[in-house]
TrEMBL record:
Domain ABC transmembrane type-1: 71-337
Cellular compartment(s): Cell membrane
InterPro entries in UniProt: AAA+_ATPase, ABC1_TM_dom, ABC1_TM_sf, ABC_transporter-like_ATP-bd, ABC_transporter-like_CS, P-loop_NTPase, Type_1_exporter
This protein's name: ABC transporter ATP-binding protein/permease
Transmembrane segments: 22-47, 89-115, 179-208, 283-302, 308-328
Keywords attached to this entry: ATP-binding, Membrane, Nucleotide-binding, Transmembrane, Transmembrane helix
CDD domains in UniProt: ABC_6TM_MsbA_like, ABCC_MsbA
Coiled-coil annotated spans: none
Domain ABC transporter span(s) in chain numbering: 371-604
Principal subcellular localization: membrane
Membrane topology: Multi-pass membrane protein
Length: 608
């Protein structure tokens, strides 16, 4: 229930729809009860003694309300029949009943109409909040969590909240009020009979709560398992080329099938328990109706303390409680099941982002002097990938990082851009710790071309102008030319308006990388970080793009992470890394003269 309350906090912007829904639900409950009460006069006309004439009763207070109501109803009906005839009176009463049912259904429609805006508005805001959280959380969060589980929370869990928790909103006022109004009318008709109903409600509630006790726990298992098989699906689609190449289709099919079978078992367990709600409540209701018929028959035929028409009206009111009672029992199951989904949603929304702006963080708009990396050490989990690393990168200079895979080169790029936060040491821009600079302004100072060329399922133009959405067509064209991308773009079916497919799947590796470079060129930042920027290019494209990169870096501060040493010979400083530490640094010629690790790396590569 606590999670339900927290989810309902999203309903605040839509409270006017909630008020309107409550208003029309009150009308619905009132007209629902009146529609059955209105049948009593019809029954009296059809089955009553037409010759009997009643005198107008005198109201003597609440204690005699029931007797007064019966006597007054008898008096009015006998008077109307005497004046208009019984058939005409019957037609009038039928018209009244039809009008009440019309008002009841109109009220129901408007109650549903307004709750729709509230439900869909809450779902929209929950999804937006979850997506915002997904984008805000650091990269480290996704290295520890399954992507499929996060996708499941945004899709399946939100859908579960819609089907369970938010569906309860439709009946949270209507069904209890229908029961309340019916019970009041029944209490007025017969206090003795109504006592049976009051006995039934707590017994039914106890049985239903016992059955649904473990529903939340089982529901969480369902949602978690859905996250597992969505993760398998996401991995399969991303790595389909490798799966096929290694003939691993069978292994992945078994992995998915096992997860899907567990989901099948958990779902069956949850739904079978939930399905008990309706028959259980209906059985309890029919048992009570049977008892009421026996005892009510005694009051009508033997005790003669109740009129047959009132008894029939009473039974219809009692039956009128069954439908909302069944709905409430099903809703109690839905609450338990939806609580599990709400818990997972709130778990994501309440996840603390360890990388956030300091309270007094400044928005830095320019880069003037240098980037200073001062004695930093860093580990992703247990082992350090960087140890006591220090370097100064002056404005306008190019610093290259080289070394074996796993030496910590890409980690430097992740730390400068603050994709990960430092715990030991400092990184400063113009003497200001990057933790004191807003993340938005820090990222505005930098352009990144990553080792994996990340493209989105959109047009070529939209992929290039990602960092500058208001770029003109001329600016996009110029950036494409600098990145040596224009030659292949103009050959595409729709040029810059061609969709590149999912993850740029319609393009070659070299083409995707050149679009990534064009994106960084268009952003035109003062600091450029190139993480293996030419790794996906063929020899011819590499030379053309390398020349473009040299032109682009001419007036910029650049951090170049390189595997191909031919691309960084002109760097102002080359830092050779090994197991997270600096082993050599200097220019290309200086490092060759040292005849050390850099020379060994050069000798292993052939230059053209």
């Amino acid at each position: 229930m606590d999670y339900f309350k927290k989810i309902l906090s999203f309903a605040r912007p839509y409270k006017r729809y909630a008020y309107l829904n409550i208003f029309f639900n009150i009308l619905y409950a009132l007209f629902s009860t009146l529609s059955f009460i209105a049948l009593i006069p019809v029954l009296k006309v059809i089955f009553g003694d037409k010759k009997e004439v009643f005198t107008k009763p005198v109201y003597e207070g609440l204690g005699s309300l029931k007797a007064y109501t019966e006597s007054y109803l008898n008096y009015e009906i006998s008077t109307l029949i005497e004046v208009h005839g019984d058939f005409k009176v019957l037609m009038i009463m039928v018209s009244v009943i039809i009008s009440i049912f019309l008002l009841k259904n109109v009220s129901n429609y408007f109650a549903m109409f307004y709750i729709t805006f509230l439900r869909n508005g809450v779902l929209k805001d929950i999804r937006n909040a979850m997506y915002k959280k997904v984008v805000a959380l650091p990269l480290s969060f996704y290295s520890e969590k399954r992507k499929g589980d996060t996708i499941s929370k945004i899709s399946a869990d939100v859908e579960e909240v819609r089907n369970s928790l938010l569906s309860v909103l439709e009946m949270i006022v209507r069904e209890p009020l229908t029961i309340l109004f019916s019970l009041i009318a029944m209490f007025v008709f017969s206090m003795k009979l109504t006592l049976f109903v009051f006995v039934f409600i707590p017994i039914s509630g106890f049985l239903i709560s016992k059955i649904g006790k473990s529903l939340k726990k089982k529901s969480i298992k369902v949602q978690q398992e859905q996250g597992v098989f969505l993760s398998i699906l996401e991995e399969t689609m991303s790595g389909l080329r490798i799966i096929k190449a290694f003939n691993s289709e069978g292994a992945f099919e078994k992995k998915f099938s096992d997860s899907n079978h567990r989901y099948y078992r958990f779902s069956n367990s949850v739904l079978n328990r939930q399905n008990l709600a309706s028959p259980m409540s209906e059985l309890m209701g029919i048992i009570v109706i049977g008892i009421l018929l026996v005892y009510g028959g005694y009051l009508v035929f033997i005790d003669n303390s109740m009129e047959a028409s009132f008894f029939l009206g009473y039974i219809m009111l009692a039956y009128n409680i069954l439908t909302p009672a069944k709905a409430i029992s099903k809703a109690s199951y839905s609450l338990k099941r939806g609580n599990g989904a709400a818990e997972r949603i709130l778990d994501l929304l309440n996840t603390e982002n360890p990388i956030k702006d300091a309270p007094n963080a400044i928005a830095k708009t320019g880069f003037d002097k240098s980037i200073n990396i001062d004695n930093i050490s860093f580990k992703y989990e247990n082992d350090y990938v960087l140890k006591n690393f220090s370097v100064e990168i002056p404005k306008g200079k190019t610093v290259a990082l080289v070394g074996q895979s796993g030496s910590g080169k890409s980690t430097i790029a992740n730390l400068i851009t603050r994709f990960y936060d430092l715990e030991e040491g400092r990184i400063e821009i113009d003497g200001i710790n990057i933790k004191q600079i807003t993340k938005h302004s820090l990222h505005s100072l930098m352009g990144v071309v990553s080792q994996d060329s990340i493209l989105f399922n959109d047009t070529v133009a939209n992929n290039i102008k990602l960092g500058k959405p208001d770029a003109t067509d001329e600016e996009i064209l110029e950036a494409a030319k600098i990145a040596n991308a224009y030659e292949f773009i103009k050959e595409l079916p729709n040029g810059f308006n061609t969709n590149v497919g999912d993850a740029g799947g319609k393009l070659s590796g070299g083409q995707k990388q050149r679009l990534s470079i064009a994106r960084a060129v268009l952003k035109n930042p003062p600091v450029m970080i190139l993480d293996e920027a030419t790794s996906a290019l063929d020899t011819e494209s590499e030379k053309l793009v390398q020349k473009a990169l040299e032109n682009m870096m001419m007036n910029r501060t650049s951090v170049v992470i390189a595997h191909r040493l031919s691309t960084i010979q002109n760097a102002d400083q080359i830092i050779v890394m090994k197991k997270g530490e600096i082993v050599e640094q200097g220019t290309h010629s200086e490092l060759l003269n040292l005849n050390g690790d850099y020379k060994k790396l050069v000798d292993m590569q052939s230059f053209e």
